[in-house]
């Protein structure tokens, strides 16, 4: 009978390191393209700049059309679909969203009494930068969890 050779501890550790590196590389390869996040952030920033500026219909149109175009582009061009939906991921997502929401809420509540164009530009810029940071943070979190194997196959939507 043929006896399979038993790997040494160093060989076993190297094998596990290779598997871990392969899993991390695969998770990084499935990340969402940066231009999609940038486009969505610019769309959000433009909509939030137009709304307080007295153009609510234009703000809604920019938001709807931009979101629709970028969602279709993401579905067609992205290498991975779905999100982690376990309690750990949902809690982390809500915490990150709360940081952005509080900043935008404060800016919207305590603006100048009469409309000022500089205020709309600042609001749009803060919204665009904050939403870009939030979207990239979300994507990095998802890739990190997938790369570490820190999920159950039923936890993806």
Structure description:
This protein is 73% helix and 0% strand. It contains five helices and no strands. The chain is elongated and about 85 Å long. It has one domain. The chain is mainly alpha-helical and 157 residues long.
Estimate nothing, just give the exact number of structural domains.
1
Q: What portion of residues is helical?
A: over 70%
For the secondary structure, the number of strands is 0
Average pLDDT score: 81
If you compute it from the alpha carbons, what radius of gyration comes out, rounded to the nearest whole angstrom? 22 Å
Order of helices and strands: HHHHH
What general form does the structure show? Answer: elongated
Question: What is the percentage of strand-forming residues?
Answer: under 5%
The main sheet comes to:
none
What is the number of helical segments per DSSP (H or I, 4+ residues)? Answer: 5
Oligomer: single chain
Class derived from helix and strand content:
mainly alpha
**Low confidence ranges:** none
The termini sit apart by 47 Å
The gist of it:
The protein is mainly alpha-helical and 157 residues long. It has helices at residues 9-29, 34-50, 56-77, 87-109, 117-148. The chain has one domain (32-155).
């Amino acid at each position: 009978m043929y006896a399979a050779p038993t790997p040494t501890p160093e060989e076993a550790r190297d094998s596990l390191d290779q598997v871990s590196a392969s899993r991390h590389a695969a998770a990084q390869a499935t990340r969402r393209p940066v231009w999609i996040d940038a486009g969505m952030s610019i769309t959000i920033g433009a909509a939030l700049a137009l709304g307080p500026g007295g153009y609510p219909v234009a703000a809604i149109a920019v938001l709807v059309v931009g979101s629709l175009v970028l969602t279709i582009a993401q579905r067609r061009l992205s290498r991975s679909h779905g999100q982690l939906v376990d309690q750990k991921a949902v809690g982390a997502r809500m915490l990150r969203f709360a940081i952005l929401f509080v900043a935008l809420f404060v800016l919207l509540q305590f603006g100048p009494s009469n409309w000022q164009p500089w205020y709309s530009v600042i609001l749009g810029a803060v919204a665009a930068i904050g939403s870009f940071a939030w979207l990239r943070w979300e994507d990095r979190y998802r890739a990190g969890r997938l790369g570490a194997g820190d999920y159950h196959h039923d936890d993806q939507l």
